[in-house]
Design brief:
The mean pLDDT is 92. This protein has 326 residues and is α/β, with parallel strands linked by helices. It has eleven helices and twelve strands.
C-alpha cells in the first residue's frame, strides 16, 4: 500500500499556479458617492479611506480607477434638496446625471452604473412613494423607471435597481426599451436583505429612514429559499445581471443563487463589512491586505462573477504588487 502525503509541499509559485479561485481588477465594481456642489473631495468618517466627490472632481477617482485597472463604477447621489417623491433622482441636471455626463466624456472606457432607488432623494428616506407610512409598490415602479431612463440618457451603461419593489426589472426594461435604449444593462439587486450592516452607507449617503425601517420590502435575513424565488423572478423579468447583498454574511445564498442563475451574479461587500475589517486593521488585529483579499476570494469562490467593494482600488493595487500572496 502506497501512502501518499495529504498535502504537497508547495512553493508560492506552484500555489498560485494551481489555485482554484482567481481575482482580477476588472471583476471589481467601485461604489462612489457624488454630492452636489463644486470642488468637493471630502472624507467619509464612517467609511475610512472613502470620499464624497462633486461632479467636477469625480474624474479624480476615475483616473485612479484607470491606473488600478478597475473598470466599473457604481454611483450614489447626495442631492442638496429632497422631497416626498425624490424628484432629484430623475432630474436631467441632477447630481448623478451631471456626474455621468462628466465621467463619460473624460473616461468613456469605464462602465458607469447608476443606482436606481429613491431613498437618497426622498425627505422620508424610504425607497418608494408613500401612502401614509406604507410604500406603494406599483406607484413606485413608475418613478423608478423615470430614474433609470434619466440615468441611461445621461450616460449610464448599466442601471441597478436596489429598491426591492416587486416587478421593478420588468418596469425598467420596458421603460428603457420604449426610450430606444435596448442596449442598456439591468443589474438587479435581486436578493437584498434588511441587514444591520448598511449603517455606514446610510451615514455616507444621508439615506437613513426618517421613521420605521425597510423590512417591509427588503428580505428577512432568516430566509434563503425566498432569495432563490426573488432571483428567478428578476431573471424571468429580463435582468441581465443579478446581485446578492450583503456579501460575506450571505455566501450560502450567493452559492445557491449562482447554481440556479442563467445570468452573471454579483455580490456586494457592504459598508458594514468593509468598516469591520478597517476597524480591526486599525487596531492591528488584522493584516488588512490579506483580510480584504481573503474576503474577496471567498465571495468569488462562492460564485460571484463580479464584486462590488469599497476596497476595489486598494485590492487591485495589492494584487498588482503581490502583497496578498497566500
Amino acid at each position: 500500500m502506497i501512502v501518499r502525503p495529504r498535502r504537497l509541499r508547495q512553493t508560492p509559485a506552484l500555489r498560485n499556479l494551481v489555485a482554484e479561485t482567481r481575482l482580477s481588477a476588472d471583476m471589481f465594481i467601485y461604489p462612489v458617492f457624488i454630492r452636489e456642489g463644486r470642488g468637493i473631495v471630502e472624507d467619509i468618517p464612517s467609511l475610512p479611506g472613502q470620499k464624497r466627490y462633486s461632479p467636477d472632481t469625480f474624474p479624480l477617482v476615475l483616473e485612479e480607477m484607470a491606473r488600478c485597472g478597475v473598470r466599473a463604477v457604481l454611483l450614489f447621489g447626495l442631492p442638496e434638496r429632497k422631497d416626498e417623491t425624490g424628484t432629484g433622482a430623475w432630474d436631467e441636471n441632477g447630481v448623478i446625471q451631471q456626474a455621468l455626463r462628466v465621467g463619460k466624456k473624460t473616461f468613456p472606457e469605464i462602465t458607469f452604473i447608476g443606482d436606481v432607488c429613491m431613498c437618497e432623494y426622498t425627505s422620508h428616506g424610504h425607497c418608494g412613494i408613500l401612502h401614509g407610512h406604507e410604500v406603494d409598490n406599483d406607484e413606485t415602479l413608475e418613478y423608478l423607471t423615470r430614474i433609470a431612463v434619466s440615468q441611461a440618457a445621461a450616460g449610464a451603461d448599466v442601471v441597478a435597481p436596489s429598491d426591492m419593489m416587486d416587478g421593478h426589472v420588468a418596469a425598467l426594461r420596458a421603460g428603457l426599451d420604449a426610450a430606444g435604449m435596448k442596449d442598456k444593462i439591468v443589474f438587479s439587486y435581486a436578493v437584498k436583505y434588511a441587514s444591520a450592516f448598511y449603517g455606514p452607507f446610510r451615514d455616507a449617503a444621508g439615506s437613513a429612514p426618517a421613521f420605521g425601517d425597510r423590512r417591509g420590502y427588503q428580505m428577512d435575513p432568516r430566509n434563503a429559499r425566498e432569495g432563490l424565488k426573488e432571483a428567478r423572478l428578476d431573471i424571468e423579468e429580463g435582468a441581465d445581471m443579478i446581485m446578492v447583498k450583503p456579501g460575506l454574511l450571505y455566501m450560502d445564498v450567493l452559492r445557491a443563487v449562482k447554481e440556479i442563475s442563467s445570468v452573471p451574479v454579483g455580490s456586494y461587500c457592504v459598508s458594514g463589512e468593509y468598516a469591520m475589517i478597517k476597524a480591526a486593521a486599525a487596531k492591528g488585529w488584522l493584516d488588512e491586505p490579506r483580510a480584504v483579499a481573503e474576503a474577496a476570494y471567498s465571495l468569488a469562490r462562492a460564485g460571484a462573477d463580479v464584486i462590488v467593494t469599497y476596497s476595489a482600488l486598494d485590492l487591485a493595487r495589492w494584487l498588482k504588487e503581490g502583497r496578498v500572496a497566500f
